[in-house]
Amino acid sequence: MSYDLLLREGKINGMTTRNRLHMGPAEKNYANRDGSMNQRYIDYLVARAKGGAGLITVESTYVDVRGMGHHYQVGAHTDDVIPGLRRTAEAVHAANSRVGLEIYMGGRQSPAYMTQRQPVAPSAVKCEVLGPPAVPHELTTAEIAEIVQKFADGARRTQESGMDYVLLHGAHGYLICQFLSPYSNKRTDEYGGSAENRGRFGLEIVKAVRETCGDDFPIGYRITAEEYVDGGLTIEDTTQYCRKLVDAGVDWIDTSGGIYESFYMILQGNEAPKGGFVDNAAAIKETLGNDAIVSATQRLSDPDFANEAMHRHGLDYVSITRTFHADPEYGVKVAEGRTDEINFCISCHQCVNLLENNKRADCSVNPVTGYESERRLRRVSNPRNVMVVGGGPGGMETARLLAEQGNRVTLYEKGPELGGQFVYSSKAADDYGNFPRYLISQINKLDVDVRINTAVDYDLIEEENPDAVVIATGILPGIRFCPVAGGARTFDIFTAIDRDDDDWEDEVIVIGGDFAVCFVALYVAGRGAEVTIVEPNSTIAFDKASPAKDLLIKALTDLPTAHIRTEATVEEVGEGYVLMQHEGVLERLACGSAIFGGRVPNNRLYDEIKQRNPDREVYNIGDSVLPRLVYEATQEAWQVAELISLKA
Ligand SMILES: Cc1cc2nc3c(=O)[nH]c(=O)nc-3n(C[C@H](O)[C@H](O)[C@H](O)COP(=O)(O)O)c2cc1C
Q1: Would the pTM of this model clear 0.90, i.e. be above it?
Q2: From 174, 438, 523, 619, the catalytic residue
Q3: 191 flagged as catalytic
Q4: Could you report the per-residue pLDDT of 200-212, keeping only the tens digit for each?
């Protein structure tokens, strides 16, 4: 497949770009506490510039501290940030990419618990999904004028620092979007009521930025084309508004969607189709024609799909965020046709889960993301012989890293294929298959000696006598939380997924409602069985943060065959029934088969080595330490590979 449109040179106002791959903005919590850039963040961006992003929008960048979102977010609120931004622009330019800031204020969606300030908004409408929400201050017209000026100042700082363009954040329910939206704008003055009045704030910002930066400076506008809430913006509203934006001086519209109340649309996952905003971008392009550049964001990292969408709908650029976060070399791999080597995002939402906890937005499938400065792969001078036991994501990632460093690696998997728990996850959620596919392609390229169908025991390790052993043996399922009477049909999370689709009885009870077992419930309910999840907590998927948790709960509640019973326990599993307790009352539920979600670390081999040969160099990583997420497994893979190679 040729990627003629993706790879063609582009032009936005006077700015040329080497291709049409826009690395979309993503807050990462990597900057300094005062909003200035640091070397770590610059190194992250330069890796993506070298990796083929034609233009890079850094992240939503606050123009006033009352509108920030996270402590370590980039700011354009004071001239003090200019030197750091200048270093950023120079470094990205040296790698042949264009770079810009997305300037914004969070408005009612700015978390007061982060900013320690009362948020400001068009109206005093709380954002209930923000925890804990604060009532925003309703801006006076004089304060609105000050904020318009702050946007103009933010754009000036962007330009003065040598950046190539500015993107106005008019999307995702932040301040500019709040003014435009009848959902959040309840004003009765000239900034509220009619579409013309609601659009005034955004247009004033565009005019002020254009006046400040001159005719030649590219101005983009990221728009929420639909808000997906009752009484919110529709594509009809926003296409008309885009025309006004362009008339006022905007060169480029980047199409997104959703607000915090519909967060599942801002960040879509496995449940969603590819390119969910392409149709809206096409509608905007049809309205604007050649008067503006139009792009779309959202699940467009499949280059075949993206190139075809550009052909079909006349889109000028595509915005790709999460896959550039996962694989800095995405652009180069597309350009060189090495698409089988792309480390695609798996839509696990760990980056945003970390961010929501005010942590750094690391990546589950790339332990180097965000650590480009310090986690550099070094070639060892004296290669070591390493046995890696367990062919799941943690074991494969360790094997890959060790082999990249030049060690001699043998990877053992007791089953017939590599992938570990991801073989199962990917049956419930396609994107999870991306990671094992990528790892296998790398392991093959690196000549790792792979031995499938090979169980490893203590004697084999003694016989091989390697320099180091890595245990990545994952979990053991089958923990039962209650008595099981004879004749009852029970499964664990693996045997459940292995079952033939047609074999499921009418009623299935899933015992325990953590994230992993909910995925299994979704999978089984999707095959027609009536599935009831019984969970003692007040919510299911409690071990995962939003939006992954909300997406999963929504997917389950959308399915008529899935049912959720919280604050309930299963007391007994019998043949054809379970006894469920809720508020102290026992209820008998029909049950053709029961799935137990319990699992424990499979650490037997590690313990045995430690006991019988304490001097052996052995490491335990991932779920065989404690059942957690793939994120922990890959982070530990890095640490262990580094430790082993340091001893070389
Ligand atoms: C961790 C994270 C932070 C994000 N921060 C921003 C942001 O600062 N500004 C913005 O407009 N979009 C932000 N987004 C949304 C992305 O730019 C993008 O629209 C979304 O991830 C869908 O595109 P993708 O499928 O290519 O990732 C963020 C997404 C993630 C995952």
Answers
A1: yes
A2: 174
A3: no
A4: 999 999 999 999 9
